[in-house]
């Protein structure tokens, strides 16, 4: 697969290991500096000082990125909506190709299945994804898209 689906180097993971979000106390997932800088609104970029950042995955926490030195960035300082922290449409699952929860749900309602994961795999293979600079987590979205497909399939089966 393309570079977007390659894990962060061990050194980057070690630098953020055990770093907790100062707001919610959740453990952060390492995120590369390129992601933080690419997704901050321009007026906040100069505050990104090169420290290793964690990505807060808590849906109810307004913090998106944080560092050991106390610097943090919240949802309102990021130029995109952070899908896992949103409750209302549009909720993005794939930032590179604009695939939302609703798109997956509607496709399953129409056809009984979703092609989102296979379309994204093809794009990854073609090296057209840009997860490091489009997805707030800095990681490939295939896992989240697969979860969204499962949720939508279960909802559709439950409504029958």
């Amino acid at each position: 697969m393309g570079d977007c689906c390659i894990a962060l180097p061990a050194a980057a993971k070690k630098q953020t290991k055990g770093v907790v979000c100062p707001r919610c106390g959740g453990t952060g997932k390492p995120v590369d500096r390129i992601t933080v800088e690419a997704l901050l609104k321009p007026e906040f970029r100069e505050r990104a000082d090169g420290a290793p950042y964690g990505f807060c995955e808590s849906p109810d926490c307004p913090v998106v990125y944080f560092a050991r030195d106390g610097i943090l960035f919240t949802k309102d300082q990021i130029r995109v909506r952070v899908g896992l922290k949103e409750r209302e449409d549009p909720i993005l699952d794939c930032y590179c190709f604009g695939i939302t929860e609703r798109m997956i749900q509607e496709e399953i309602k129409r056809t009984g299945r979703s092609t989102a994961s296979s379309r994204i795999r093809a794009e990854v293979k073609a090296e057209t994804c840009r997860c490091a600079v489009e997805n707030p987590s800095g990681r490939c979205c295939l896992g989240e898209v697969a979860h969204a497909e499962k949720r939508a399939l279960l909802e559709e089966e439950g409504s029958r």
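The mean pLDDT is 89. Residues 71 and 78 are 14 Å apart (CA to CA).
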